[in-house]
């Protein structure tokens, strides 16, 4: 579909916010619920947000209708479906597509609850981690509540934790951006959902592919949607079973959360993902080591300071903690930073396909604007933005020549506690070099872009 042109600058006044709790409660680095910190969309005083879009979708839901209390929209059929036994064509050498109708929910943990660790499956995965040779750091689980409730961990005086949430620290294994300028590693978290077909239809119409970080509890609910994502050439990756903050769990619980998510994805599409995204970006060296022992490489998203990340905050549309206008202003800030001559790499942006509001804002506004951008963005899955073949996204199809499994090494290398700009060489077998970016922004920025960074820092907190 060809987007319509929107030529004028739009300025919208926000007059309040609703308080509907999201499926996955979110919290910023302050430990307060996202959206309640200073500068957030849920401020008591009405706030104006300005944004400009080069293009919008002519069938877009009006911005005024993208609200927390919006009526549920009709759901739509998938753009395509695939019969059991179909041979995948997007990847080579893959097994035939499993029969999703044979999935037995009773064979999996309860939905949206941290998995129990006493099952035979989890016990076997625990043993597999012990046998991997990867050393798991002796780091105690964090208390719930984020940085204020974990002051020692947040300070990370000896840099041994490398807790991304509170310090912006990244390890060499973390994928946080794409190596090539103007390349966008497109990602969507928390699905599949009832509205994912709308997103897939838009992506198919515009020949776009994405990385979908799938929650195991959603996969067991919507296996056919995951199969369509996979068969159409999107990258499928792990986002845990029940979406907890991983640093608050025991080693055994982390293993169970990752293991069950890997298992249900393989049961549905026939292959096992090699990449994962920690919910809330909540990762430290203990989580990294466990993931490494389970052949999973972390993918987070681009971050330019301790509080400024490439997060549109689209997730909070559903809860009323932000507004559509605020999300589009955030997108403008991100777009401006990503295209600045001072920004040396491509980027990874955090978005979601769990709720109709986040799908509406993506297909109606963000993606059409990005497609109209000049010079053009190269929009592709994370595995592709790393200049690797799609086969490398799956353990059984990876030939190990360009992307050896993470357990080929036995330690997790800790990066600096500064904010990232690390090349996309993160993960196994990346082919760039690290280029750190200061935690206080980019030196030498002009006044306009410096203002953008200030605004981004004031409006974007550590979210999903």
What does this protein structure show overall?
The protein has a single domain, classed as TIM Barrel (Alpha-Beta Barrel). The protein is globular, with a radius of gyration of 21 Å. It is 26% helix and 9% strand. Helix 1 packs across helix 7 and helix 9 packs parallel to helix 10. With 464 residues, the protein is α/β, with parallel strands linked by helices.
**Helical proportion?**
25-40%
Largest sheet: 5 strands, parallel
| CATH topology group | TIM Barrel
Anisotropy-based shape: globular
Radius of gyration: 21 Å
Structural class: alpha/beta
> CATH top level?
Alpha Beta
Extract low-pLDDT stretches: 1-22, 27-46, 408-464
The name of the CATH architecture is: Alpha-Beta Barrel
Cofactor: Co(2+)
Membrane topology: Lipid-anchor; GPI-anchor
GO cellular component, one term: plasma membrane
Keywords: Carbohydrate metabolism, Cell membrane, Cell wall, Cell wall biogenesis/degradation, Chitin degradation, Cobalt, Glycoprotein, GPI-anchor, Hydrolase, Lipoprotein, Membrane, Metal-binding, Polysaccharide degradation, Secreted, Signal
Task: Please specify the SSE layout and strand pairing.
Elements: E1 4-5, E2 9-14, E3 47-52, E4 55-56, H1 120-131, H2 151-155, H3 164-167, E5 183-189, H4 196-205, E6 211-214, H5 216-219, H6 223-231, E7 235-238, H7 251-269, E8 275-276, H8 285-293, E9 297-298, H9 324-339, E10 347-349, H10 356-371, E11 378-380, H11 382-385, H12 447-459
Parallel strand pairs: 5-6, 5-10, 5-11, 6-7, 8-9
Antiparallel strand pairs: 1-4, 2-3
Helix pairs in contact: 1-7, 4-10, 7-8, 9-10, 9-12
């Amino acid at each position: 579909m060809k987007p319509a042109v929107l030529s004028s600058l739009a300025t919208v006044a926000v007059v309040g916010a609703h308080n509907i709790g999201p499926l996955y409660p979110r919290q910023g680095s302050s430990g307060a619920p996202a959206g309640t910190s200073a500068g957030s969309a849920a401020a008591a005083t009405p706030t104006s947000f300005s944004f400009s879009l080069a293009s919008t979708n002519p069938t877009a839901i009006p911005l005024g209708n993208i609200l927390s209390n919006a009526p549920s929209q009709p759901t739509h059929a998938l753009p395509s479906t695939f019969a059991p036994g179909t041979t995948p064509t997007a990847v080579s050498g893959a097994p035939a597509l499993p029969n999703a109708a044979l999935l037995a929910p009773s064979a999996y943990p309860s939905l949206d609850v941290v998995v129990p660790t006493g099952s035979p499956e989890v016990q076997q995965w625990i043993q597999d981690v012990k046998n991997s040779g990867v050393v798991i750091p002796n780091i105690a689980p964090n208390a719930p509540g984020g940085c204020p409730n974990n002051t020692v961990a947040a300070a990370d005086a000896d840099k041994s934790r490398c807790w991304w949430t509170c310090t912006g620290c990244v390890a060499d294994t973390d994928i946080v951006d794409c190596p090539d300028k103007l390349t966008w590693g497109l990602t969507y978290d928390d699905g599949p959902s009832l509205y994912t077909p709308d997103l897939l239809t838009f992506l198919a119409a515009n020949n776009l592919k994405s990385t979908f970080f799938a929650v195991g509890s959603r996969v067991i609910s919507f296996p056919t949607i995951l199969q369509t994502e996979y068969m159409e050439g999107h990258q499928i990756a792990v986002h845990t079973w029940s979406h907890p903050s991983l640093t608050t769990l025991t080693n055994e619980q982390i293993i169970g959360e990752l293991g069950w998510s890997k298992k249900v994805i393989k049961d549905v599409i026939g292959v096992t993902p090699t990449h994962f995204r920690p919910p809330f970006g909540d990762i430290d060296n203990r989580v990294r080591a466990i993931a490494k022992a389970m052949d999973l490489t972390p993918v987070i998203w681009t971050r330019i300071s301790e509080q400024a990340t490439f997060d549109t905050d689209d997730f909070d549309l559903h809860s009323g903690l932000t507004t559509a206008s605020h999300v589009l202003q955030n997108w403008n800030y991100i777009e401006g930073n990503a295209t600045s001559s001072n920004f040396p790499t491509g980027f990874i942006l955090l978005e979601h396909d769990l709720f109709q509001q986040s799908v509406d804002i993506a297909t109606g506004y963000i993606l059409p604007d990005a497609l109209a951008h000049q010079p053009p963005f190269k929009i592709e899955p994370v595995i592709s933005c790393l200049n690797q073949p799609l086969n490398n996204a799956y353990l059984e199809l990876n030939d190990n020549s360009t992307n050896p499994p993470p357990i080929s090494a036995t330690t997790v290398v800790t990066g600096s506690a500064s904010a990232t700009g690390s090349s996309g060489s993160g993960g196994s077998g990346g082919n760039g070099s690290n280029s750190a970016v200061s935690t206080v922004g980019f030196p030498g920025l002009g006044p306009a872009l410096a203002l953008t960074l200030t605004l981004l820092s004031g409006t974007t907190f550590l979210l999903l």
